[in-house]
Design brief:
It is a single chain. Helix content is 54%, strand content 3%. By secondary structure, the chain is mainly alpha-helical. It has one domain. A two-stranded antiparallel sheet has the order 1-2. It is globular. It starts with 13 loop residues before the first helix and ends in a 26-residue tail after the last helix. 16% of the residues are buried.
């Protein structure tokens, strides 16, 4: 069986510490891919849905978070708010990093381009000159 280190030694800061660690990874990916605006748009769209979903599942007892600070904001743990920022940022950062690495993308998702008014209509199929 795989032995996983016990990070529970951080006690009530365990969840927060993992959010900070994975948030740093997400930020690094976004920086590399130059995709901060893309991630911000995604987070803004998803956050309200994620908040309601999270609030509801915590309220009805679907899950509990024992290793957290106990600080709540708008009825849910502060760590969950961070989670709702980190997850979409990680997804966008990973997606845009893969696009940049695998497609050899010469322009970044947040940079203006010449492929239409939105600048992102056919980014995956754009021909490079």
């Amino acid at each position: 069986m795989l032995s996983v280190p016990d990070i529970g030694v951080l006690g009530p800061y365990t969840y927060l510490a993992t959010e900070v660690m994975w948030g740093a990874v997400a930020l690094a990916l976004l920086w590399y891919a130059d995709a901060f605006r893309t991630a911000a748009r995604t987070v803004l769209v998803l956050y309200p849905f994620a908040y309601v979903w999270d609030w509801y599942t915590l309220e009805v007892g679907v899950f509990e978070i024992p290793l957290r600070t106990g600080v709540e904001l708008l009825g849910i743990p502060i760590e969950e708010h961070i989670f709702m920022l980190v997850v979409p940022a990680m997804v966008v950062g990973t997606h845009e990093t893969l696009r940049k690495v695998l497609d050899g993308e010469s322009t970044t998702p947040d940079a203006p381009s010449d492929d239409g008014p939105r600048g992102d209509s056919d980014r995956g199929r754009r021909k490079h000159s």
